[in-house]
């Protein structure tokens, strides 16, 4: 699989060869593996760049593409962790010992440049490269694309709404003066009215030593030849069009990418780290009524302070609804474990499942028993929730999550805010309780007890779920965009 000449399958005749370079972080790498699958299903050849520890996580993905006979190869490059002061085998953002190591991690990613360029030069002799699609954080890949003389497209794993807002923040320097976190910034040039306190804007709480690298990422991104989005026209038409108009760069909305999975086995293997007993989860969900279960998950990076987790647990208990709760509590996990074991788990055992670590999120969401999704508003989670047509309770923490919350609550109107007041820095934990058990109980009850407002929200969510699926069916907007993307990149290659 790691051999340059090797490919998961013969794949038949292909029309274009895409090199995909994900950021090594679950929330960025997972949609890029989905993208690889989608492009290959539409006849493209795909080289997915990865490192050994990340390749190990892709075993389920690789088995899936092999079984389907798709033209996907992994291009595996050793990761120079030790050269950058990182523990051996630390090859993904979720493996970092602390946020202080993030800038070293990004530098280590940059060191993949020369070995990757060499591999692609070799690979090109057999299969010409048509374009490079890279995570915005892998800014150095632009130089490789230029060297190969092919288009460089970027992917940031976020909504178009948040990406455009981020662009305006950078372009108009909205966070230049940062004395007052409560000060409201107005996004002029945004197609719908948008205002946000500075403290909730992405980039408002930088990790140490990141300023220069973020500046570089932003600058380089301006030079990309276009953007690939994990979204679909019907969901974000206005923002796609307006973002394209402002930047003059094409956007290819080809999502929801998670819909490349169609059965429980492959869905459960997504991310390949599940610590839950999938069969037990499914059996338990099968025993529940449709739309009766609350699913709570905060993605792959957010950690929540023990006292806040206790409040969340007590709120779920008070709501009296069945739930699946994915608990990630970072370094303070023993404290939470002690509390869970000290009566809570026993009290809720008939109606709650607690998953410690990594959950088969897509598999769970996909089940008809799920009625509400409590989410941290990472874009993958939101778009996965949209695909399955469930209303959401939004609990953002950092980065663009507050923008995604705005999209879900104010524009799509398929969710309610739990009421988080301010952002925190990624990698740190909120030091006080910002969401009370009462907040949890009230919002869960509001959505699950099916008053008129909740019913309308559920209907809108279901409609969006139908549109999401249609987008990827034959003739749908994303289906057509994938075809056009492959065609255009293939044509450029033939012309060059
Ligand atoms: N995920 C999962 N199991 C978990 C946590 C996360 O499968 O226990 C997946 C989730 O389905 C999504 C991704 O990991 O595809 C998380 O991405 P998101 O953008 O939601 O949040 P991030 O982790 O980047 O904050």
UniProtKB/TrEMBL annotation:
Its EC number is 2.4.1.-. It holds the Pfam family UDPGT. CDD domains: GT1_Gtf-like. SUPFAM superfamilies: UDP-Glycosyltransferase/glycogen phosphorylase. It comes from the Eukaryota. The keyword Transferase applies. The keyword Glycosyltransferase applies. PANTHER family: GLYCOSYLTRANSFERASE. Belongs to the UDP-glycosyltransferase family. This is Glycosyltransferase. It comes from Leersia perrieri.
